[in-house]
Amino acid sequence: MGPIPLCLLLPVTVLAVVAAVAADPYVVNDEYTWPQWKVPLVRKRRTVSLSSPSFSAQSQSELSGTCGIECQRRLPSPSLDDLEQLLSYETVYENGTRTLTSVSVQGLNEVTAWSRNASSSTRHKREVYGTDTRFTIADKQFSTKYPFSTSVKISTGCSGVLVSPKHVLTAAHCIHDGKDYLDGVQKLRVGILKEKSRRGKGGKGRGGRGRGRRRKGDKGKEEAEEKEENGGKGDRKGKGKSRKSRSRRSTESEKPSFRWTRVKQTQVPKGWFKGVSDGLAADYDYAVLELKKAPKVKHMDLGVIPSVKKLPAGRIHFSGFDDDRPGNLVYRFCSVSEESKDLMYQYCDAKPGSSGSGVYIRLKEPGKKKWKRKIIGVFTGHQWVDVNGDGMQQDYNVAVRITPLKYAQICYWVHGDSSECQVA
């Protein structure tokens, strides 16, 4: 499926609008409202220096041997000591040095409402079969505007998402293969789609045209966003010409270009490292990159949701830079077929390069009528999963979900102060 005008795409992704707000300060019962979670605290215990990595690992388009949902059900629940070991993390700096930080977890017993969902075992393979349901966001009027502008390209070949003005969330396997850091991580960069000026020479002279064109583009974006908020209803008369114009711009757009920024430091949880986490590696396939310079791009907040399948429509959304559409941002949405407290299996069509994309949904803010998108997981791509723990491998689409513990850890990495991460 090629580029299509976004004004026709957005209405099909919207959640229905209802009004209700629960009174509980931590868990909101309204299925259309973001639940509020009291999360545990992850605190730094000790940091020690390690030898510099060799940066010799090669990136993999597919992962194998990860422990799937059924396999995990057979494993004992990790103890507090286990969790503290899994949540300890390595930090690699741009000069090639490396440290290991051990952590303590506090308030874990206060987080008791996390669901363990048993759902359908029907799944589909990840590769694109039949109709390709992905959408190329080729028109920079949209690809460089929120929420698509939060998607970034990682120089190792993956995608990521901005979760603060200068922090990117991505998949751990885009940085580390479980034994060593990938070749290229010592010079890791993040690419952000940039919007070229439409003004030609002398654009600042009379100026009316340049500014007028920008206002017209902004108006088109606002109309598309208004249609999303209204569920695709309320088309105004006389807009056919405008839609046709936007469609033509989408198909005739120039090849996207990136503004690249160096990464200051990279943090990966020890739960991802083989030999530490045994079969739990899939649960910890996430990493955070701190940029040397904050781009002037809006980020997307993290969110915690106990079940995606129980949401209206039960859909997730994410955008990334799939390898088969070089340089272009590719958006998709799909249903979640099965979920555990740490993993989500889903139907989304995807290709290598989309790994590390931020998986998000849109719900209302508590006590407000305003809808807000939040990142609830990381798309980790095509994985060969040990389903039952007997060594038999099946391939699935896998996303790692943001749990209260992971929220606490990622929030601590971003803010450097766990006191700012007590409520998700």
Automatic annotation (TrEMBL):
Ranges where the record places region Disordered: 193-262
Annotated GO biological process: proteolysis
Keyword Glycoprotein among record annotations: yes
Endpoints of the signal sequence: 1-23
Domain annotation Peptidase S1: ranges: 144-182
GO cellular component terms, semicolon-separated: extracellular region
Cross-referenced InterPro entries: Glutamyl_endopeptidase, Peptidase_S1_PA, Peptidase_S1_PA_chymotrypsin, Trypsin_dom, TRYPSIN_HIS
PROSITE patterns xref list: TRYPSIN_HIS
Biased composition (Basic and acidic residues): 219-237
Keywords: Glycoprotein, Secreted, Serine protease homolog, Signal
MF-aspect GO terms: serine-type endopeptidase activity
Subcellular location: Secreted
Record's compositionally biased regions (Basic residues): 196-218, 238-248
Keyword Secreted: yes
Source superkingdom: Eukaryota
Any Pfam family matching the protein: Trypsin
Family listed: Belongs to the peptidase S1 family.
Name listed for the protein in its UniProt record: Inactive serine protease 35
